Amino acid sequence: MPTQNWSAPMASGPVDATVALPGSKSMTNRALILAALADEPTRVVRPLRSRDTLLMAQALRDLGVRVAEEGDDWLIAPGERAPLAAPVRVDVGLAGTVMRFLPPVAALADGRVTIDGDPRARERPMRPIIDALRALGAEIDDGGRGCLPFTVHGRGALAGGAVTIDASGSSQLVSGLLLAAPRFAKGVEVRHEGPPVPSAPHLAMTVQMLRDAGAAVETAGDLWRVAPGALRGGESVIEPDLSNAAQFLGAALVTGGRVTVPGWPADTTQPGDALRGLLAAMGGQVSAGPDGLTVQGSGTLHGLDADLRDVGELTPVIAALAALAGSPSRLTGIAHLRGHETDRLAALAREINALGGDARELPDGLEIRPRPLHGGLFHTYDDHRMVMAAAVLGLAVEGVEVENVATVGKTLPDFTDLWTRMLGV
Ligand SMILES: O=C(O)C1=C[C@@H](OP(=O)(O)O)[C@@H](O)[C@H](O)C1
Ligand SMILES: C=C(OP(=O)(O)O)C(=O)O
Asked: pTM here?
């Protein structure tokens, strides 16, 4: 497929903008799964429409679920046939949420569900969820590889029960098991054993959205229990994607300007909410009001010493800010980013250094020191957040060319429009 590069625009002065963001990827794909397994129709209000969520919607349609457009919303009606239809082939693209949330649903289908994705998707961690599903009663043919592609031989039902899993590679391995668990005959009890599970807010989001849909969920440390039972439909309102606010709010810091994101929820499980503390630590003035969340830059950008394990998906943009900061940064707790869309630690170090920067990989993070940057081609490795990181660098560095900008459509297809509008160019 031909790919197009994009010249990241420099900021001509302090930005002053309000940027309304589309819905959260993480909430949209959870809402879709829960709606597909509910007993009643669900209206998903203002879902994100991006590659990751359209792939999830298509996978569910293929399984016999009705997903209809109604204005900004999606109306989801559970399959007319229970159990879910099969045989089908599911394309997960490069979406972690689809590759981890869909297989437990596939085990409830009536027949073969073959699951595959982009070449890189075949390298992302899947073995723990394949093994866990087998322990819960599923039959999966993965040719012994422990990764995509594989076929789930659904039998219309799954026993469920207790299982132990090492989810240190991705929180989604646990979320996937929990989201479908109300429909397992015995529900599920998932215990994590191993190095810490990353992305705690995303697990809280899974628990919260399950409870909102009527599921009985108990949690204690590294243990999650979901009782079998019906899920209700109704309305599932999707918040703006706060992780995708990172680059826009970050632009206020880089340019000494001001950016507001409207509709910032007062109370949320999204990891992007941590931007309030992170951007304040980097020198921003952060305020929440009726207009949304506003970050005002002072013109000074401080480095950051932070454990980002809970909020790993913010790393690419934070690393770009760190590369423009006046003092060193140390970002840790993020070894699992090596299994994301690309090995993000390697990719960020390589691309920042290619622009003249000083970034060093740590076993579980990055160390970034101030150094003047110059223009050049920024490779993006099919990673939407590498595009976002490059755009941030381009605000302050002349001649940053961003490879394959369309890859940003994984979560934010309108990115370049929103970016140029924010800059008034
Ligand atoms: O459950 C989710 O919606 C997500 C969980 C996180 O995955 P990891 O725990 O694999 O980092 C996050 O990085 C990803 O973007 C979305
Ligand atoms: C890691 C990410 O995505 P995925 O859901 O594919 O894991 C991300 O969006 O930063």
From this structure: 0.98
